[in-house]
Amino acid sequence: MQADVSPSGPPLVELKGISKRYGDLLANDGINLAIQPGEIHALLGENGAGKSTLVKILYGVIEPTAGEILWEGRPVFLSSPVEARALGLGMVFQHFSLFDELTVAENIAVALSDDWSLATVRSKLGDISQAYGLALEPDRAVWTLSAGERQRIEIIRCLLQNPRLLILDEPTSVLTPQEAEHLFVTLDKLSADGCAILYISHKLEEVRRLCRSATILRGGRFVASIDPRERSARDIAALMVGNEVGEVRTGTPHVPKGEMLTVRHLSMPSGGLHGQALDDINLIAKAGEIVGIAGIAGNGQSELFAALSGERLADKAEAVVIAGKSCGGVDIDSRRRLGAAFVPEERLGHAAAPTHRLSENTLISHAAAEVSRSGFILLNAAKRLARAIIKTFDVRAPDGDPQARKLSGGNLQKFVIGREIIRHPKLLVVDQPTWGVDAGAARLIRQALVDLAGEGSAVVVISQDLDELFEVADRMAVIHQGRLSALKPINEWTKEAVGLEMLGVAQSQGAAHAV
């Protein structure tokens, strides 16, 4: 139950005429926004709409070019996140602000006051983790964690500070349906206790479930203020992107043909400190189908991707078979030459070198696959190919041949997926294809995956977004603690059943176990 947010007094926080200019780019253009105590307020917009800039201004990370911030009716100047936190703001960034070499507990402690000892943090961490269903090991090094586990640290770190305004950026992207609902109950309770929440999400049904008000940005400008409960998700998406966002077209049902990927009895020890071991993985992906792999972050998705891509090698060559060739003992370049393509979870730093230009990133990825045909790709050809990817996949990038780090997250994701799809691979394995991207970009990426399977490729999608898997997958399995469940047709799954598998709860005794 949300608090009564009728404006009996000044808003808890009010942004007036906020603008931010970077040279010729106006990232925010005179934006007004007010949030009452206890209100859960959504901030919506496609990638590049100005949401991140606006909340970074509110949190003291960057200074506005114009405008002012009022806190309980009085002007404040926030020159740093330290000042913002002292005022009562807490923020969970989509892109994490963590120290890789420190432990979970140390990363939490470093953001808190000196009164918090590591022993106190460990104790409170256990309480918060249990209450919110966000499991974390306090002494585990951050560099060993998946993206989802890192986000959990950010959420818990904020909640330990008892914020008066909590800013959440894509907080449920790593949660099961049951955990997400648990979080929603927690947010409703925080709201009823008077904590205001600014909620940023591309999952519009979540917004409709949680929020009574929403501010929509497009191109750095205010577009609309709405009650999301009174609009459909499609209507809201249309306001965000400026035109109607259609559903993914599936066309004729996929007709699977021969096995393009076969994984038999694949087991691997953990790849690092506390990493997840893989235990007897069996998986088949056929030409012309999409196979979905669901699971909570940290249960072996990253390790499975590394084993399929060749970043980690199996003990037995026959453990991984691509296009009829045993390749468990060969590297990623050899697998690319068999017609496979791979898109890892981390787009900046893993899928793309941040300081390299888009053409150079294309060259790096395509060169190994082209060896068998031409020996090498000239950089000029890579530049032409990069331009084709930008055009085909609607990548909104600076003119010329920009560095990968110059693109927004959603546009870089479209580029790296387009870079692999444009090769027309026999097999594509992609990890978290639409994590943190807007509705329009997600729809384009999902459509591209469906179309690729329709052309006869085998596609394996590892995702924590169940809506995504139910939309595109033909068959699906769940990974939990390094073990893979039965691979079943998508119409034999329910979201509740998937959620229970993700939590490790045994399903009915009659479930099939053949792949």
How would you describe the overall organization of this protein?
With 515 residues, the protein is α/β, with parallel strands linked by helices. The chain has two domains: 13-241, 3-Layer(aba) Sandwich (Rossmann fold), CATH 3.40.50.300; 259-502, Rossmann fold (3-Layer(aba) Sandwich), CATH 3.40.50. The protein has 16 helices and 21 strands. It has helices at 51-58, 81-87, 104-110, 118-132, 147-159, 177-192, 204-210, 233-241, 301-309, 332-337, 358-374, 379-392, 409-421, 439-454, 466-472, 495-502; strands at 13-22, 25-35, 40-44, 66-71, 74-76, 89-92, 165-169, 196-200, 213-218, 221-226, 259-268, 278-286, 290-294, 320-322, 325-326, 340-343, 427-431, 458-462, 475-480, 483-484, 488-489. Strands 13, 16, 17, 18, 19, 20 and 21 form a seven-stranded mixed sheet that branches. Strand 14 (320-322) and strand 15 form a beta hairpin. Helix 3 (104-110) packs across helix 4, helix 11 (358-374) packs across helix 12 and helix 13 runs parallel beside helix 14 (439-454). It is globular and about 70 Å long. The two termini are 44 Å apart.
